[in-house]
Amino acid sequence: MTLLTKKPLLIRLSTYLFNNEAKRTESRNFQTATCVLRHVNPTNVKNKSLSSQLWLKRQLSDPYVEKAKMHNYRCRSAFKLLEINEKYKFLKPGQIVVDCGAAPGSWTQVAVKEVNSIGQSSSDQLGKVFSIDKQHIYPIEGATILGNMDFTNPSTQTLLRTTLGDRQVQVVLSDMAPTATGIREMDTENMLTLCYNVIRFAVQVSEINGSLLVKLWQCGQAKKLETEISRFYRNVKFVKPNSSRHDSAEIFILGRYFKGLEK
């Protein structure tokens, strides 16, 4: 083999080695960045309580927090609804959805897209999303917002039913949770009260074969709540999406195929 034939081979070999080294360097940099992300230590935590410091550190190290920013969701909880719906497909174009305890609005953002309430897909039916919370909710295109209203107040639910008019609801969502007191029994009781409020409302406004997704905390009464929901929905199951933190006691109950109420 002459030098003229060897040279292209040497060039190709050098290029191959250079590219491989570049890939290895890029891989090392990515792994280093990932390690840094997983062990972020927050700054400016002076005068903050230990619980606040731990919460901030967890937020900074949470990949779903960064992912929510990338996808323009208001908070990481959007991925819980996305995961559950991806598996069970209960949100569909053209549906009427009520989001209870919606603030800051990430579940509403997901619902708006899934039911096509702003006409993203011209080939699908237009849906509608109604969102309610005690806190203020900044406007979300495609959603009717009822902010600064306590869902558990009977007059608020009457107003919500008036807003719905004669429209029946296909999906009722609830990511609500009470303010924690630190007393386990009291917190559990408050959470169950919220759940029963949502169920009572859902069975009054839902269409036959409608769905219900409600959050609760793992507790001894969870099985009883599942039984209660089974009176109204043909298929009921507990769900724990991957985006729900492993150290969190939250779980979700999904009820599908609403049976309707006896007249």
What does this structure look like?
Helix 5 links the parallel strand 1 and strand 2. The radius of gyration is 25 Å and the shape is globular. It has helices at residues 3-38, 50-60, 63-70, 78-88, 106-114, 154-164, 184-205, 222-230; strands at residues 96-100, 128-132, 143-146, 169-174, 206-217, 233-239, 250-258. The chain contains eight helices and seven strands. Residues 1-7, 9-14, 20-40 and 50-57 have low confidence and may be disordered. The protein is α/β, with parallel strands linked by helices. A seven-stranded mixed sheet has the order 3-2-1-4-5-7-6, sandwiched between helices. It has two domains: 3-58; 74-258, 3-Layer(aba) Sandwich (Rossmann fold), CATH 3.40.50. The relative contact order is 0.10. The chain is 44% helix and 18% strand.
Largest sheet: 7 strands, mixed
Q: The CATH topology of the largest domain is what?
A: Rossmann fold
Number of strands: 7
Give the name of the CATH architecture of the largest domain.
3-Layer(aba) Sandwich
CA distance, first residue to last residue: 94 Å
Compressed to H and E, one letter per element, the order equals HHHHEHEEHEHEHEE
List the uncertain runs. Answer: 1-7, 9-14, 20-40, 50-57
Strand composition percent: 15-25%
Alpha-beta content class: alpha/beta
Shape: globular
Spatial sequence of strands, sheet with the most strands: 3-2-1-4-5-7-6
Keywords: Methyltransferase, Mitochondrion, rRNA processing, S-adenosyl-L-methionine, Transferase, Transit peptide
InterPro entries: RNA_methyltr_RlmE, RNA_MeTrfase_FtsJ_dom, rRNA-MeTfrase_E, SAM-dependent_MTases_sf
Domain Ribosomal RNA methyltransferase FtsJ: 73-257
Family: Belongs to the class I-like SAM-binding methyltransferase superfamily. RNA methyltransferase RlmE family.
